[in-house]
Amino acid sequence: MATPITNVLDLRELARRRVPRAFFEYADRGAYDELTLRDNRAAFERIRLRQRVMMDVDQRSLATTVVGQPVSMPLAIAPTGLTGLQHGAGEILGARAALKAGIPFCLSTVSICSIEQVRAAVNAPFWFQLYVMRDRGFARDLIRRARDAGCSALMLTADLTVQGQRHREIKNGLSVPPKVTLRNLFDIMSKPRWAWSMARAPSRSFGNLAGRIEGTGSLTTLAQWIASQFDPTLNWKDLEWIRELWPGKLILKGIMDEEDARLAAAHGVDAIVVSNHGGRQLDGAPASIEVLPRIADAVGDDLEVLFDGGILSGQDVLKALALGARAGLIGKAFLYGLGAMGEEGVARTIEIIRKELSVSMALTGQTDVRRVGRDVIWRDHAVAARPMFLPLPVGCGPQRAL
């Protein structure tokens, strides 16, 4: 008898068994010593909620808006690279699940399925995430393609102009498209569900980068391509250039400092995403949830504040809302569901988070996500408290002292 799936970590374990190691660890792990990766979760776990009773919470609303878009709950699927290697056609399956759930889906520049493939398969607008290249003609072309596809928002990622090293990707010899070698033959043969999904997939390489990375055979080569193509000169003046090309909603992702948040507001972006790239860039940066309250206070009502970094449950979403976010983005949680069960797994992830959010709202006396405030947090100074130990991700060994 199969073990019931009760939370996102159950989906993570299922994905770990079903997805080849190189691709699972690409989604699951972080940069360098993974301090920030672990702290994203540890910081959430330190926050306690304020239990309330004898309040009428029979009717609860999770509906809200995100950058002007009505959504069924304050959640969006974050842009994730190589999504289509967790499960064949992963980007399409994620977009479909998000559409059915009534939440936004954001497609990455380094997706496996292209903008056009996703648009043809999903008859509804989605968001597109942009990395700015040294070749501004290519960046201009990506924006045009997103505009032609009817994307409803453009998300500029600002924190990957230089790539942080991810040791696991190098050690696993991750390749795109996936190659069968003596090293990974047994792993792939033991994952028939994954292999079958890949055999039927419309794309197994970087759909949006076709013709731009000729001869790329491994992630090491991709990292070298990123070093040569991702533009480290990206600065605030470039927002004016992007605005000329993109008249729609503009979201800036990768904000971890109050001053950068104020600059984003001054430059007229519609929303920011408080994010440390899931612990995959600057290792040693604080947890995203730790800086969220100060950033939300710094910008006030000047723009919308979205949150990304460690969300695995509805309680995590509630905590992010209480500390100033309009909505949360899920990356790893999304990929766990996708790798575990394809579109059904993504839908399961969303539903788990939805139910947990609704129950947690009831037990804290909340009836409307739009009115959740910091009084939901029990002694909100707990956000700043630090533990003696940071837990490693599940299955990654013993706790490690600071």
Overview of the molecule:
With 402 residues, this protein is α/β, with parallel strands linked by helices. It has helices at 8-18, 21-28, 35-46, 90-101, 115-121, 136-148, 167-171, 185-189, 192-199, 219-229, 238-245, 258-266, 288-299, 314-322, 332-363, and strands at 64-66, 69-71, 75-77, 106-107, 127-130, 153-157, 249-255, 271-274, 304-308, 327-330, 389-390, 400-401. The strands form 3 sheets. It has an 8-stranded parallel β-sheet. Strands 1-2 form a two-stranded antiparallel sheet. It has a two-stranded antiparallel sheet with strand order 11-12. The longest helix has 32 residues, at 332-363. The model is unreliable at 384-402 (pLDDT under 50).
> What is the molecular shape?
globular
Largest sheet: 8 strands, parallel
How many DSSP-defined strands?
12
Distance between the termini: 41 Å
Proportion of residues in extended strands: 5-15%
Number of helices: 15
Order of helices and strands: HHHEEEHEHEHEHHHHHEHEHEHEHEE
Q: How many whole angstroms does the radius of gyration measure?
A: 20 Å
Q: Name the average pLDDT.
A: 90
Strand order of the largest sheet: 3-10-9-8-7-6-5-4
Q: Class by helix and strand content?
A: alpha/beta
Low-pLDDT stretches are 384-402
Percent range of helical residues:
40-55%
